[in-house]
Every structure is written in structure tokens, then in C-alpha cells.
Amino acid sequence: MSEPARASVRYLVDDVDAAIEFYTAHLGFTVNMSRAPAFADVARGPLRLLLSGAASSGARATPPDVADSPGRNRINLVVDDLDAEVARHRANGLTFVSDVVSGPGGSQVLIADPSGNLVELFQPAETT
């Protein structure tokens, strides 16, 4: 089997249109060929993000005991200037769920999409 050209992640969302707007307007994703009222396929570089509404087959496969709560998992988007990204997203009214946290590997902050799914903006530490 050959290596896939993209990695895909599925996020369950409450409102597909709101999710499309969030990911395309704020985080640089583009809409791929698939788009329906219950589902959208958006991409940023090699990441394919599948946005599944309640009527989608992906959402229906989710066990009832976890269907109503976003997990702790998140996608990680590398940025060049975290401070600038934080300022831009604050100005656009996005929901931050953490402060900027810095460690030996770099700095990160978490934002939530309209359904509460987490997105980590990460700036790697400079290496010398």
C-alpha cells in the first residue's frame, strides 16, 4: 500500500457551515470537493479535516456516551509568530481555552471551534 498524501482527522461539529467559516476564515483551510449540509472536507497543507454534522455517517457511528462531549484531542497547527496569531484571533473574537504556555519545545495556546473542538496553535522554540 502506498503512503497517503494527506492525514485525515474527523471533528464532530454542531453546525457544518459555522465550522467551515471558522476553519477557512481564521485558520487558512480551504474547502475540498466534498461539501454537504451534514459534512464538509477542508484542508490545510497535508491535513484533511473532516467536519461531520449530526446527520453524517461519521457522527452516527459515535457511541452515545461520548457523542455530546468534545475530547481532549486536538489538531496542532504550527505558526511562525504565536503572539501575532493570538492578537489576530482575539481581535476576531475566537474562543481561547488556555493562556499561552511555554516549555522547552516551544509555546502553544488552545482555541475552540464553534463546537468546542480544540485547535492548538504552536510555535516551536528557536534552536541555536
From TrEMBL:
It comes from the Bacteria. Residues 5-124 form the VOC domain. GO terms for biological process: L-methylmalonyl-CoA metabolic process. InterPro entries: Glyas_Bleomycin-R_OHBP_Dase, Glyas_Fos-R_dOase_dom, MMCE/EMCE_epimerase, VOC_core. One of its GO terms (molecular function) is methylmalonyl-CoA epimerase activity. PROSITE patterns: VOC. Keywords: Metal-binding. PANTHER family: METHYLMALONYL-COA EPIMERASE (PTHR43048), METHYLMALONYL-COA EPIMERASE, MITOCHONDRIAL (PTHR43048:SF3). This is VOC family protein. The lineage of its organism: Bacteria, Bacillati, Actinomycetota, Actinomycetes, Propionibacteriales.
